[in-house]
């Protein structure tokens, strides 16, 4: 980045800056005229100077001028104007003053909007430039740079810089011209008053900025302290498990408290200095009117200054302090922003950045050539942090494609060489060539397509499993439709003006043909097949059962799932398993479902109809009031509250009974005990609405077969079933899309796929019911050929932040498939199989060797036990590298048999 903020701004926005400055200059004549009009109103209309010679009328809007004597002194009339009476002239000049006020306000409005837009465009450019440099951080820089601090800089710290960019050139021009126009007008009226105002202004412009230098230093300290606070909070959040394990709460609280005190202390110093400067500035601003009233009044008494001129001077000076104050504030903001900009440029210094994207000067067909041929490494040198040589002038050569086992023997050299081959470690001496091409000089686009790297710590981004699997396929957009192009014209124009990419994430970024797929659905099948082979088939199937589908997007799958629902019901009936699942029936109460679900007979799609919000929902309460159920349910809530307070009396929080009876949390017991005490002397109808709502929430979560408190009889069940129609009608009449109602002939998009297949609830009364139901579902799914489709639904499963919703084995599997799906020429595996046990590790190694039979596979191994299956064995000892061809693959019979539960092919549980 440019070291000078003003140079950076001018380089990227000079055209817009000049246009706005031109408008500012054009506005000054109107501003000058608005300053002169008060004098004309007082002198000509109010005091009557225009009517001094006995004239009853005076010209209004007379336009003309007289040439200088040396040009002949001729008077030129442009417009004679209108003849108006004294009252007419007063109102005419006043309306003209109002017109100029509107015109000047219009100029200010346009300039401010233009500045704002300009600032936002430059802020967008600045943030994108910084993010672009984040992508260029070297691996060594990434080890020292805190991600939270970098994110804070891009998000928050450049915000004031963006706000200043629009003011960088326009504001000083605008304010300076306004101040000079006002000063010039005062000098024209009276030279002495003008010089006096100029002297006070000079003092303000010299003293105030000097006094504010300490504020700059304190502001710099505050910014650094705030950034360090954000970084420390992020560190604690990342290591919160260690804090819990070692009970370090007190230490962390004390440290954050100390940092907050430091910020507080700096802020107090800033406030003290800031308001001292503000007091002095306001005093100097009010000192000039004192001189105007005293000295100007003296001149007026002596007759050397008329009243109109004095009024105009005072009125003009009222316009002078605001631009001067804003100009001083602008100078303060300039210095403050320059400090922030300097700190930003230091954070993104050149020594932390790798080279910009290498220019792909080669022809496309040459750049896309496979990475095959002789790989020759010459004089490779890598040192540790203490200067010791890990690899010292080592060389090797081998023919690609090949499978290579990198055996470190306890040394980090093997892992370092793997990272060098994967281009993840550019800081090394020597050279590696593949054919005639230098490995480190390959264009990033070529390396991204041709090389894959799976390390020990897989990195997943928030989103779905599918998003992470196809991440390596999103290399460049392949185009968009004409309709999209027309809609994107404004976005593309803004992108060009701000130096942002014109591509959109809505474009098609995946080249399906390159990965051997016809379309998106075919790519999903490829992904599922790879997940099956890598051993994650069962997990992706379970994710699919827990996922959702949209019947409008997948109508054929929705029809097949409805057919599977019927087949599953027939299977239950035929095999004597009908008691395992109680189906949803619009005419019957479902004992395995909650009272809320029985009343809604559907799945909530809005928070207003979920959990305890339902008890306070206006439409729902209205419906159960009409059905006469409110008092009964509130009384049931009282019974549940009494029972729960008795059961939980004296139990510690976290006891298993709290999980079984999920009505009340341990922290809520005192609240319900208070409600019971208030109710002791009155019936349910006498309770407040708030108490009724709290009690009503308890039975809505009640399941008779699970909680077994004996609170539901057949009569109440019939009334609850009858109330369904009232609830549905009330919700539909209110036109609220809060519940998707059950339909036995359709898929409920708000319910998980498993629930759609069952269309009922598994019985709590039958032992081992869930396992038997899962087996029956798996059988029907296989018979109807739905297994692949359900696994494709599982690709929509969210992985969470950094993949934390997945197990380490699942994260590793997804990372490997992400590498495999792009079909790289060179695959580097560096500790990626560590989460698996030895048997699974061996199976996955054999699978990788099979998949990369025609490509190159480099794999770091801890010992020689699996090295015999590779074409080459690369050993590291005493800083040297020795490469030898394997005698041949280890016979299958000599390899340990995997356990029966560790299958590479994913099986449906």
TrEMBL record:
Signal peptide: none
ABC transmembrane type-1 domain sequence ranges: 78-329
The keyword Methyltransferase is annotated on this UniProt entry: no
Domain of life: Bacteria
MF terms in GO: ABC-type transporter activity; ATP binding; ATP hydrolysis activity; ATPase-coupled lipid transmembrane transporter activity
Pfam families cross-referenced by the UniProt entry: ABC_membrane
TM ranges: 89-111, 164-186, 192-211, 279-301
Bilayer topology term: Multi-pass membrane protein
Segments of skewed composition (Polar residues): 900-909
ABC transporter domain location: 652-903
Main location: membrane
Keywords: Membrane, Transmembrane, Transmembrane helix
Record's subcellular location: Cell membrane
Annotated spans, Disordered: 880-909
An example Gene Ontology CC term for this record: plasma membrane
Identification of the protein by name: Multidrug ABC transporter ATP-binding protein
